[in-house]
Structure prediction request, 193 residues.
Amino acid sequence: MEEVPTRQVRARYDEETVTVYQVFRPEIGDPAVADGRFPEAFGHDRMTWIKPSFRWLMHRSDWARSPGQERILGVVISRRGFDEALESAVLSGYKPGLHASKAEWQRVLRRSPARVQWDPERDLHLRPLPHRSLQLGLGGELVRRYAEEWLVRIEDLTPLARELHATRDAGLLPPERPYPVPAGAAARLGVTG
Prediction:
């Protein structure tokens, strides 16, 4: 088995788009799938977290079984938008060596419309793996742009989540591969591969 770098963005993508995953309650997820856009209840005034790792989202939602997390959506957005969000992002926690000082990190964090967290990736039994998975938090104007400008389509992946929960068949997983993070963003976010 190939060793995965500690902090590597892995995603389902092509030349124009990247798929990120979100979990919602049915009151948001169902109309989003039916209309191909987020309903008003989505709320543009709070930070929204997107994840390019399907397995991590299965952990977060307990296979779409947690209350308020019953709908798994694959949100296909433009790579241009995803890259813009990465280039705007700051780590959500201070890391010596990546930041000049804690005060400098706090100053940049206050101005940034996006945050990055690295959480343990999961296997199909939702056990933590030694490498990390990216979570990207979008705030302010980036939320509107994500929901309106960058959005290409919305896919309902709830049935897939349920089938994977029942079978743990790795062949059903959405194919994710290393994503080419823009160099400046990769250095600032601690990407290791």
